Amino acid sequence: MKRSFFSVVVLGLVLAFLYAPIVLVFVYACVPNGSSMSFFRTDGSFIGFSAKWYQMIFRGDYALKDLMQSLWLSLKVAGLATLASCVLGTTAALALHRWKGRLQSIHHALVYLPLVMPDILIGISLLMLFVALGVECGFWTILLAHVTFCVSYVVMTILARLQDFDDRIVEAAYDLGAGPWYSFFHVELPLLMPGIIAGGLLAFTLSIDDVVITSFVNGAGTNTFPTYVSSMVKHSKNLPAVFALSTIMLVFTCALVGLSKLVVRGQPQKPKEAKGTKGK
Amino acid sequence: MGVRTESHKTEWLTTLPSLAWLTLFFAVPALIVLAFTFHGHTPNGGVGEWSLATWKELVDPDYPTIVWKTLRISFQVTVWCILLALPCAYAIARMGTRWRGVVAGAIMLPFWTSFVVRVFAWKTVMHPDGWLQAVYHGWLHAKLALFSWIPGVSVPVLADPPPGNCLLGFAHCAIDTARTTIIDSEIAVVLVSVYTFLPFAIMPIYTAAEKFDFSLLEAARDLGAKNFHAFRKIFVPGIWQGIVSAVLMVFIPAVGSYVIPQMLGGTNCVLIGNKIFMRAMQQRNIPHASALATLMAAAVLVPLGLAAWWTRRAAARDRRKLELRTAQLMSTGGQR
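^ Those are the sequences you sent over. The predicted structure of the assembly is below.
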């Protein structure tokens, strides 16, 4: 096995490139001066790191009221959009997996096209729908838009899971006298759960990060975290607070994921074995 | 017969929720956009009578330039992403199983920090007094010194050079420091776009490379092929479907990109996306925004159609499988 030195070097550089802004976020979260975004005084001397932005966040400082409100709205929208798109995505993936007729090819096209359309087109077309219907934009239009673009990703993730799904298990359930509802809730759903959770996580990430579609359908004054941040002027005084908040969120997510990995490792691969024996 | 109708009913019941949702909120809005392009606009921001006025106004000399610029930048971004993604995917696919998961996860991890926040971090480091600005100026000087004598190569950001000072091509005196900031330049947009879309190029190529039989490369070397030659003639064709997916996954969002040029390109880098946003949200010219959106949809659907036409059905099926696998990898952060 000959490893290419060149490709490993490129990989290292690319990883450095991908992580550079994350490091910058950490560093600039400690900047002492929010309007110059610099660690240095005008005469070039070093001021030092500052923890005041973290303190502001934990104190619930009034200057950050809008920022915290936008984050709260983002979490609410992402949570609800994840739930709704998981429900729609699961039924859609099951239908696409089980039937292969004309109806499903139309269905597949409708699921697939939002994935290949640029976000901005989904945003503007939804805006046009709301204009045509005369709907006032706000929380509900944001939620509706988020569900629309999340569904397709959830379907794809669950479909990937269904590819190595043994359909004979469902047949066996039917043979043993289970009805369609019983077999769905007691056989298919538990087996699909890892796929649904993965799809839901993807939907949550996409929803909480979306700025393009939201900026078309949010209406005046309603801001999610990304649209609020992107509307901050070039050198808004509170930019380091945004960086500090992002650092806290990243640490929190990493801790959560690490914890879930530990929990999964704690159970010695039980579901996999069960699946293997059932498959045979 | 009874079983058949029963199954038909179940199919409809299972399909209906998502089918209805996507028809209402994806297909119908797309048709509304198309319909609006055949309307005029009213001064108060509404939609006027049926007319062809909007399409006639699109000939406006501004628009072709913007479309061309968008396509050119998207093309640049795509080429850079693929060039960087190929060796990365190769390196990851040649690692042990344990490391593969870790590195693939490491590539997706930056996504856990908000995209807008990361763009702001770039913006901060591109400050006119910062070091990236110095690097950019160094590059401009080098470009000026080395290439300015070639006819046709222009270094577009020059102040009027003081006469007599620019001997031997060392014309660094001619760079106007105030006008040549890296922020608000096309380079900034390309750089940050490559940064944003690179993981989307690496993942599908890696998914394809994972299945590639690396002993073929060794065979090629045994038969006397040089490393790079074997890479180009054996590896690249072997993972071709992955490359096609990667091109689509970078080119399409790049054409639709609007946040990056808006935050980093300033007035020097207005792309179709920015124009759509301006027309729709600031000037309230709904028909114009719709027409531009239709143009963008065409810019996306044409390469997609070409890709579908080029690859045969079996290849298309392979690619769909690859895409599913990529979705799985990305949603679980590279862990299996």
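Chain A touches chain B through 95 residues (CB under 8 Å). The CA atoms of residues 57 and 65 of chain A lie 10 Å apart.

Shout if you want it in another format.
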